[in-house]
Amino acid sequence: MEEINSTIYDDVFRTIQERHPKLLIPLINEVFHTEYADYEPVTRLPEEYQKVVSKVVADGCIVIGNHIYHMECQSTKDSGMVLRMVEYDFMIALSQAEIWKGTYQIRFPHSCIFYLRHNKNTPDEEELEIIFSDGQTIKYKVPVIKAQKYSIEELFEKKLYICLPYYIMRYEKEFYRISHNPELTNQFVKEIKEIVMQLWKEAEQEETGLYQDLIRLIQKVADYQLRNESDLKERMGKVMGGKVLELPSDKLREAKSQGIKQGISQGEARVNRLILILQEQGRTEEIIHAASDQEYQKKLFEEFGI
Q1: How many C-beta atoms surround the C-beta of residue 233 within 10 A?
Q2: Cα angle 119, 124, 128; round to 5
């Protein structure tokens, strides 16, 4: 059952990647010890390159500067993960192949595995050996980042907001005990409230839609995680502020889209009215002039009070 519903975790990761790709920058800085700024331009790998990678897990391929970064979100330890990673990376490298001085070159992306769960046996990097027919041996290594190893303070200090929706998963084996112990319940709710309050605090200073989206994604994971603990789910729902129906940014995007459509419609109405007036006044030659010269068109709008 968990394997089937693990798509919930993948969907959250994919949503962040598609709608707020800049949240991947702190993750990359943490894993690869880079120092990209929050405002660094981030682009997703073009669609034609995405198609060559089998989407077994919620993968993410982005470009920052001249570097390609490939991330895989994995909810549980998988002994074959490193094999999939090298397959993905090889296909990505092939898609970027270049000829240099008459010889093809392929460059592997910077890759990492984003583990949502880990235990004492989870390595800090996955590796395998590639042995060529001439005896050359290459060690392929992929660093691992563990979402549950960071405290709330560390997540906000390092801006690893991408880990916040999965924070609740560190308690998934204790939900029954927590829900039947008032003291533990209060402590659990207090932690979640601390995250929400900190996000709202950040929202007052920066991009509100981003932090609202994160709160909703936190609740989306929580609704699944707490599906068998109705009382605890209800307590957490009160802290989060309601049931997830759609992300706030969806509403913002819809409002913006409607505004654009309305603006276009109103603009077309103004132009149509101007054309009718010019025709009525026998100034038909000015119609073409107005269509090709926005300043002249604006002048006519003012002249006729449109």
Answers
A1: 18
A2: 115
Residue 279 phi/psi, 5° resolution? -65, -45
Q: Taking all residues of the chain, what is their mean pLDDT, rounded to a whole number?
A: 82
Of 88-102, 132-146, 236-250, the one with minimum mean pLDDT is 236-250
Residues of the chain with pLDDT > 70, as a percent, come to 79
Alpha carbons 253 and 271: distance in angstroms, whole number = 27
Q: How far apart are CA 201 and CA 218, in angstroms?
A: 16
| pLDDT value at residue 302 | 86
Choose among 142, 171, 138, 161: nearest CA to 74.
Answer: 142
| Dist. CA 9–CA 79, nearest whole Å | 19
Own/partner contacts of 242-250, CB < 8 Å, gap of 24 or more, are 243/219, 244/216, 244/219, 244/220, 247/15, 247/19, 247/212, 247/213, 247/216, 247/217, 248/208, 248/209, 248/212, 248/213, 248/216, 249/19, 249/209, 249/210, 249/212, 249/213
